[in-house]
Amino acid sequence: MSTWERSESSSSPSAPSWFSQFWSSALRSKPLAPPSETTIRATSGQGLVRRLSLFDLLLLGIGASIGAGIFVVTGTVAHDTGPGVTVSFIIAGGSCVLNALCYAELASRFPAVVGGAYLYAYTAFNEIIAFLVFSQLMLDYHIGAASIARSLASYVITALELIPFLNNNIPSWVGHGSEEIYGAFSFNLLAPILLVLLTIVLCRGVGESSILNSVMTVTKVVIVIFIIIVGVFEVDVSNWSPFAPNGFESVLTGATVVFFAYVGFDAVANSAEESKSPQRDLPLGIIGSLLICIALYVGVCLVLTGMLPYKSLGGDAPLADAFTSKGLQYVSVLISIGAIAGLTTTLLVGLYVQSRLYLGLGRDGLLPSLFGEVHQTRHTPVHSQIWVGIVASVLAGCFNVHILSHILSVGTLTGYSVVSACVVTLRWKDKTACQVFGKSISSRAEGLICLITVVCCGFAAGVFYRFGASFIFLIIAVIIAIFAAAALHFRQVYTSTPGFSCPGVPILPTVCIFINIFLFAQLHYEAWVRFVVLSIVTVGIYAVYGQYHANPSSNTLIIYQKAPTEAD
């Protein structure tokens, strides 16, 4: 009898206690289907349509990662780091590349199913961990979408005020946001309107939304490249000396700050069901888009720090100020256009990813089946998309969500860490018991203990670094993590994988976990509280609803829909 069937029989007199049933349900995992399968499990009679080419996936990743921040973050961090901010972006980018390699393997291994980090956790670990990953990611996405919508509305109003008769004649509540009420409420009219428009585009189909994303992303990238080319002729190499005026520690601190500028490449993994050739294109889209983003960030950093002394950088628009100081005011207009395009693509992709995650949970029963339905003609999860748009519109229209920015990134770092751990666990081959300190323990349990040890060491190292503890404590944490990684390497047997394979397993994923949790420790303490509170709420929702409705092994099959251009 399967685990699912046993849980269904819990109402019988011989059924286990409620806690036993909860634990049995929570530990269920999703069956791993062969990579060659061309069908997916779902509860609907229609599927998503395969329209996205490799070029579309590259633009999807770039669109999600590069927003208005490339015109702002580069300068604000350079003010504290100096020209060494370039190294900060390279270090942060290198760290993200390691995470991208992990994502690429799993995207290649699960090329047929939507869900991203949630799906990977469901297959590698269990149901409750997958649900926890979803909730942490989704809170980031919801607050992030509302915050970006408000920023986009503000940029649009600023651009409109360039028209003489509109200058200073647009009420602040239209786009910039009204005055705060009770410290949290702030009305904004334009942000929900922009969200509604983008939601309509996404509901019409992935083809329409892909076209909009492509146009906006290309516009943004062209503007960034043009800014780099123009700026090169204004560079004074003497501004690059000293390169790291505040020492390497400031460069490393800068890397922890700019790490989040690259967040978004993982959005490509959530387009598995809409990619024309997912097993080939998903890894290329994930890694390729990230490498392009690194090149653009480094180029902007070199130009910016070469144009002006680093001490004069900072403010709300450092890049625009740098070009204005050189008499190139027209570049400021291009930066505004690039910022609007960048925020639009970031918001569009964010809404897209959220709906696909809801789609995955709706299919698996962890959320009402309404979220798992796909429109028969549009081939989009309309109900999920509308729900995502409503949540973002309410948050953006009524609340000053910018004050919540310091609790963001928790879901991102959690998701990245879990994905890295999934790469390791799904490669394990030997599941037999072994002897550890004279006691019999399964090979999988030993491996999980090692992974948890790495997590604890990463957090401890981050806390020691953050609060300036003795360097010896940091070294001890690193050494323990190294021993745990060595145990994973020498005491586990690993299988090869079809498609793209992450190099250096288990060492590379273990390094990813350590770095991600180290960065997690650098977040505001309120972010830690948010992680704990949301986890408790999530477990409560699962206990009341999820455990009774989830069906990870549904046998309903659905055939992929081909794009019209590919039809026979």
From TrEMBL:
Keywords: Membrane, Transmembrane, Transmembrane helix. It holds the Pfam family AA_permease_C. It is a multi-pass membrane protein. Its main location: membrane. Gene3D superfamilies: Amino acid/polyamine transporter I. One of its GO terms (cellular component) is membrane. The keyword DNA-binding does not apply. The keyword Ribosomal protein does not apply. It is found in: Membrane. The chain crosses the membrane at residues 57-78, 84-106, 118-139, 181-203, 215-233, 253-272, 284-310, 330-353, 386-404, 448-465, 471-490, 502-521, 527-545. Residues 500-549 form the Cationic amino acid transporter C-terminal domain. PANTHER family: CATIONIC AMINO ACID TRANSPORTER 9, CHLOROPLASTIC, INNER MEMBRANE TRANSPORTER YGJI-RELATED. Belongs to the amino acid-polyamine-organocation (APC) superfamily. Cationic amino acid transporter (CAT) (TC 2.A.3.3) family. This is Cationic amino acid transporter C-terminal domain-containing protein. It comes from Solanum stoloniferum.
